[in-house]
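Question (not urgent): is this output format expected?
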Amino acid sequence: MPPLRPLSGSQDPSSALRLPANRRLSSPTSQRLNTITETGLPPPEERWSRFTGLRTSLSTNATGRTPPPAYDWVPGPNDEEFPKDPATEEKLSRLRKTWSSRTEKRGGWRRVAIIFAIALVVLGLVIGLGVGLTRKGQKGGDNEGAVVGNSTTTQPADDTSLIQQLPLGQYSFVTNLRTQQTTCTPNAATWRCYPYSVLNPSDPSTSASSQTTFDWIIRNTSSSYATNTTGTTAPEGVAANLTISSTNNPFALSFEPHPLTYYSSASNASSARLTFSFDLPKTVFPTSAITPDNSAAQCFFNNTVLAGTIYLSARGNDSTSTENTDKDGFWPYAVEVAQTSSSGEGTPDCYETVNGGVGDRITEGLEPVGEGRECVCGYGNF
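Got this back:
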């Protein structure tokens, strides 16, 4: 670098700190500086815009070309908008009238609804006619005769009084304890019959204390089953195609469905009845002491049979049967039920009761009695 020269006397001494020393520049360099000073900064580049649609262009000095004039994009009318000139309105009016007339000629939705309703009516008539003819044929076949056992009965077609629900359904069979027999056991305290009071015809007060109700259900196992309108049978009876079972009551006799047999003697039409008989062990809790130390006990009669006769037309002849004849859910006819246990080895089979469970077996004073003896709990309403 050349050494600095002292300032002339005409210059301000303070400007020496700000201004650089004069310096000669070569011609090419000075020309370049003059160009920068005259033209200034280059114009910014123009780019695409969706509003102006201009392309990027260079300055005139850089490209030597003149850019195209700017223009604006004007959006066209929406597709849904139509010109509002009179000619167009007239065309649209003619189209509307033409479409309206065609719709009215076809009937539109009203015509479709009417056709659908007519189709439904026709379909209903066809189904109703078919069902009616089917039922008529079945009714005619049923009236030809019902064969039960060795006999045939003819039922009038128009006698609706013969069409009854009996014996299907759930019924309360109201009875009285009429018999209590204890000859099958050496100790009468081991056989007891609920409600522990026997009916005494000469004592009206026992009518209520001896009353017992059995809630049972009668169901059919076939479309053809015995009813109170079924004809007579042979002496040995026929299968009724019915079952009887207990309701869900933990405080009553409980048993699964068992078959019923139908009997109807030709000599006595009022004796039409259903019967059942099956093994149902009986448990008794003696209230009197049956052991030397007076301990609690329970006795099992494993040979007990539950049997019953349910009449389909004969009425009971006591006050209990008469009072419940016209009540819904009560069996309106006579009924007879019995629990029977025969004597023999193991009758009764008694044990001590310990904490609610079965303890030691009790044998003292419970030796078996002779064969052919029975213990009975007999119930009935006639």
